[in-house]
Amino acid sequence: MSLAPTLLQRLKNPDVFRSIDRPPGLPKFEGAATFDVFNPASGEVIATLPAMGQAEAAEAIRTAYEAQGRWAGLTARERSEYLWRWHQLIVTHTDDLAAILTAEMGKPLAEAKSEVSHAAAYLQWYAEEANRIYGETFSAPSNDRRMFVIKQPIGVVGAITPWNFPASMVARKISPALAAGCAVVLKPAEQTPLVAAAMFALAAEAGFPQGVVNIIFAARGDEVGRELCANPKVRKISFTGSTEVGRLLMRQCADQVKKVSLELGGNAPFIVFDDADIDEAVSGAIQAKFRNAGQTCVSANRIYVQDGVHDLFVEKFVRKLADLKVGDGFELGVSVGPLIDGQALSKIEAHLADAVEKGGEVLAGGKRIGTGTFFEPTVLTGVTAEMRIAQEETFGPLAPIIRFTDGDEIIRQANETIYGLAAYFFTSNLKRAWSVAEALEFGMVGMNTGRMSSEAAPFGGVKQSGIGREGSRHGLEEYLEMKYICMGGL
């Protein structure tokens, strides 16, 4: 049976959440308030969900806390097998999950399928990493004692995921937590909760024990977020979203000195030096700027191009925009979908208006398309550091190009931001490649590539772009506590 139509049919009826046949992992919902989930391409209501709050969050946390000890008590191999089964089910249902994702978020169907595959890759990776949680032994100062370290799960984890990658972010947070032996309570973004619900349905099919994976739907996340931060049964918060909300969560966790992992905003520079392969740089910039309609935290936000190749780069970049088709993500050949909502659209228009007022020139695009939240891929030149577009994260298909002369000075400009998530640069000079990669104050650097995310690599930023890392073996460590044991009397 196809997962997508069955799930969406059930989610159109909020009464299902008050029945014993409610979707797996959800606490019972006694309230009356609901909220709608929209397709951003059409404005159609595709589901009506319960607006859960503090009471449901507390119940989900209690359930996870009761399951925590049993889950942590399993062997690493047993936890690995659950993750493997979940991975295989997601692979089997890729088309259905991608259809749900496109319906609620708007990204092109091919891109949605790629994201679901990325989510499955995280589950596969941590199914394997579950078996690689190692301790240490140390040389003791005397022969009558032994000293060693073991690693144990931190406990119940509260995970809060964003709307722009609603499948892969769920897997990236939950799979290492489960591998480490932690039970999880997830609050997905209110704009895109459906693919998470579908993934949890598959987790139930994979046989995860009751209470190990729990999900909360909320129209406004602040009430649920406060409960996750304040409840002492939750030992860690993992959040992906804005820097502003990340600061708030840190403050709310401070009284309990609760461990946090934060993947926050970015203001990624994309630097093209005059010795770069221009065709490769253009392709990389298109990918880094317009993937997911520019709605990614690692999107190229400031494109710096050196004098010697500036005009050629701009010419080829603008010409390449003709290959981008904007439209409903379900339409054949579409490569740029809608923005998530009207607020996102207004932000792009505000950044564009500010830049034009201060001397920027629109070379391509610059307008809304139709009556929805579609916006033309846009190229802007004559951009200066004083413009909002150079200082703030735009989160849309707006590419500002900034001309530069001095290679050393541009590194200073690139680093002159409170953010430090991702950076990109293109060069064919090996000496420059190493010096620039080391000088950029960012947690991730793409050298001669516009895309670098992988389940095998650590994802995260420095400065006000976050704390901690996701993915790779380092992502597993975020959910483990180190315990030193000293055994005497030997």
From TrEMBL:
InterPro entries: Ald_DH/histidinol_DH (IPR016161), Ald_DH_C (IPR016163), Ald_DH_CS_GLU (IPR029510), Ald_DH_N (IPR016162), Aldehyde_DH_dom (IPR015590), Aldehyde_DH_Superfamily (IPR050740), Succ_semiAld_DH (IPR010102)
UniProt xrefs under Pfam families: Aldedh
Domain Aldehyde dehydrogenase: 33-485
Gene3D superfamilies the record matches: Aldehyde Dehydrogenase, Chain A, domain 1, Aldehyde Dehydrogenase, Chain A, domain 2
Record keyword Oxidoreductase present: yes
Uppermost EC category: oxidoreductase
Lineage: Bacteria, Pseudomonadati, Pseudomonadota, Alphaproteobacteria, Hyphomicrobiales
GO MF annotation: an example: oxidoreductase activity
Record protein name field: NAD-dependent succinate-semialdehyde dehydrogenase
Annotated catalytic residues: E263
This protein's UniProt keywords: Oxidoreductase
UniProt similarity note: Belongs to the aldehyde dehydrogenase family.
Record-listed E.C. numbers: 1.2.1.-
Organism: Rhizobium oryzicola
